[in-house]
Amino acid sequence: MVLLLGIPALAGMILLAKPMLMVLFMRGQFLPSDVDAASLSLMHMPVVC
């Protein structure tokens, strides 16, 4: 049961990390390079946990 929910959630986090961060934080002083760096850590988070 855990894998039934966990694997799609993992795939969603990996695929949507960058677009989600761009929508939420890309204004003001949050630069595209900051989005790239933050999306890398967000993509690795579900794999490690």
What does this structure look like?
The model has no long low-confidence stretch (mean pLDDT about 90). The chain starts with a helix and ends with a helix. It contains two helices and no strands. Helix 1 runs antiparallel to helix 2. With about 50 residues, it is mainly α. The protein has one domain.
Subunit organisation of the chains: single chain
Number of helices: 2
H and E string: HH
Q: Percent of residues in helical segments? A: over 70%
| Portion in strands | under 5%
Task: List the topology elements.
Layout: H1 2-25, H2 32-48
Any key phrases for this structure?
49 residues; mainly alpha; single chain; elongated
Short description:
The chain is mainly α and 49 residues long. It has helices spanning 2-25, 32-48. The model has no long low-confidence stretch (mean pLDDT 90).
